[in-house]
C-alpha cells in the first residue's frame, strides 16, 4: 500500500474565537501521540455580569492522533479568527495509520482499538463512518479511502467498457403476492394438465382455469416471520411472477453493466428472488442491498453504495419518488401482474403519486476536516430508530395478512366473470416494458462510450469535495438531456391539478414539467400549447376549447410522458366531455390574454359568446359614444359611499381562491364590459344614495349639474371601476329601456325614486326610510336615476 498523505489538523470549531497563539509546544519533526500538547492560546473572556471587565484567559490544545509533525501553519503571536481556523490547517502530521477502514470497532489496517474514549472527546471511529458495501456488517471507510476504492472501480469499468446498473426488484423485474388464490389456481391447472397429459379433452365440464397460461411459470417460496410470536405460523407463501423478457434483459444488460440489486424487501426475500432470476450468480453476484442494510426504510440513496462519484451509475425503478428523481434514474412502468396487489414490500413507503418526492431529505454530511475536540453532534438514539423500524415492519406484516384473508384476486376474477358472463382471465401476460428499458439502457451506454472515445480518456477526479467540470461522458448528463427532450417545445398550463394552497411554481408538477423540457404558465397566454386538466368543466378548459389551437387533455398524458420518457399522442387522452383535444379556432379575443377574455361557464354565457352582436330594436349601436357612457358610470359611482365600502369588502378572503376562481371573476367582468350580445346575470345591487350638500362640498343640484362639474375636474371621488354598475349596463338592456315610457322628471317621485328627491330636499330622515325599503325594492333599484338620465340624453 502506498504511503498515506499527510494529515491536516484544524483548530476545533468550539474554540472562543478569536484566539491568540501564545506558544507552540511541539516542534516540527517531533513525534506526537494522543494527548501530546500542541499549543497554548489566549482569548478575551467577556463576563455575563454587566459591571465586570473583560479579562484574558488561557487554554491548551492537545493532539488526538499519532505521528510526526512535518510543519506548522502558525507562530506565537498569531491571532486566529474563526474563518481562518476553518480554512487553514494549523499543523500537518504524517500519521503511521489513518485508520481509514474499520470493522467491529477495530482498525482493519493496524488492528488498533478505535473505541477508546478519553478527555479529548474525539473518537477514532468517526474517522471511518462511510458504509459502502452491500453488507450491514461490512467494514466502514473514511472519505479518502472511499475515493480510492471508487477510483479503482471506475478504472475497471472503463477497461471493460461497462457502466453500473442498480436494479429494483418489486414491480420492476418481478411482481409478488401472498394471495393464496394463486396457489389454488396453480394447483387446479397442474391437476388438469396431469389429467389430460395422455388422453384428449373429451369432457366439456372439465375446463382449465383461464389464468393457467399466465400462472404456469410463477414460482413460490416461504419466508419465516421477521418477529417470532407465540402464535406465529410458518409465514405466508410468496408467489413470484417474473416480468416477460426478464431472461433476455438480464443476459444482455450484464454484458454492458455491472449490475446491483437495491430493494425495499428484506434480505431473506431478496436472496430468494435473486435465486429465481439469477440462480448461477453470474448477473448480480453478491451485490445485493436490501432494507436491512440500507439504513433507511422509506428512501433509497446512491450515496449508500457510491458516496463519491455517480457519473457511471444508472438506476431503473418503478418508484421515482423514493429516489427523489435522481438524475441517474430511468423510470420504469410498474409491473402489475397480480391485479390490485401493488408492491407487497411498499406498504410503509409514501403514497405513490408518480410525480416525485416531497421535500428531499438532506444526505448525511460527509466527514470533512479533522478537528479533534469538536463535540459530537446529537443524533437519534438507536432505541428510537429500532422502535420506528419495528412499527413499519409490523404494519407491512399486517398488510400481508390482510391480503391472505381477503383474497383480492378471487374477488377480481368473480367481478370480471359477472361483467362479461364468461370465463376470461383476470391475469394478463402481455407486458413488454423490459424491452423498452433495454433499448434506453443501450442508448445510454452507447452515448457514454461514444463521448468517452472522443475525450482524452482520463477519468475525472473522484471526490465530493473536489469541484470538477462537467464531462460529456456522464450518465447523469445523458439522462437529463433525454428528459429535457420529452416535452421540448411544449407550453403547459395546469388546471385543477396543483393544490390550491400550493404556489404553482414550487409544486412537483411544475418542477417535473420543467425538468422534462416544458415551459409552464398559470394563464392561457397566446403561446400555450397544452392544458393539462384534472377534471372537465373548469373555466380554463372551456376557454381553451373555445379559443382553439390548444391540446385540452387529462393529467394521465403528463404522467405517461414522464413514465415512458417520450411525448405521447395527445389524441389518446381527451378530456371527458370534450369533443376533441384541439378546440376549433374561435374569434380573436379583444384582450391580450385569452384567459381574461374567456367567459365563465354558465347557462347564460355558454351560447353565442363569439357571435357578432345583433342590434336590438331601433337602437343604433354605432351612434353611441361609449366614452360618454363610461363617464356616466364613473359619475354614478362617485356618488355612492355604500358601493365603495362593498367593493373594499370584496377583497376579503380572496387569497384562498384558486386560479380558476380568479379567472372566472375576470371572465365574467370581461363578458360584461365587452358588449356581449347575451344578457348577463346581474347580482343584487344596493340603491344609490344621492350626495348631500355636505358630501358634495356644499353643491346642490341635479345629477346633470354634478356630472358637468366632474367633467371639469373640480370634483372627484375615489375609484370605482370594479363596481357592478359598470358591469350591469349593456347595450341589450339599453335597448329594452327604449320600450319603457319616458319618465318625466317634473312629476313627483314614485316609491322607487323618492329617496333621490328627498335627499336633495335636505333631510337626513329619508336615508333611514330608504334602508327600510331596500329589501323590498330590488326591482325598483334597476330603474335608477342613471337609466333615466341616459334615456334623456339619447331619447
Characterise this structure:
With 795 residues, the protein is of the alpha/beta class. Helix content is 33%, strand content 12%. A five-stranded parallel sheet has the order 17-16-12-18-19. The chain has a four-stranded antiparallel sheet with strand order 1-8-6-3, with no helix packed on it. Helix 5 runs parallel beside helix 10 (433-454). The longest helix has 25 residues, at 382-406. The protein is extended, with a radius of gyration of 39 Å. The protein starts with 6 loop residues before the first strand and ends with a helix. The model is unreliable at 355-370, 373-379, 583-619, 640-659, 661-700, 702-726, 738-772 and 774-779 (pLDDT under 50).
Keywords, separated by commas or semicolons:
25 helices, 5-stranded parallel sheet, alpha/beta, 33% helix
End-to-end C-alpha gap: 107 Å
Mean pLDDT comes to 75
**Rg, alpha carbons:** 39 Å
The number of distinct helices, counting runs of at least 4 residues, comes to 25
The main sheet orders its strands as 17-16-12-18-19
Structural class: alpha/beta
Largest sheet: 5 strands, parallel
Strand content: 5-15%
State the shape: extended
Name the poorly predicted regions.
355-370, 373-379, 583-619, 640-659, 661-700, 702-726, 738-772, 774-779
User: What's the total number of strands?
Assistant: 23
Helix percent reads: 25-40%
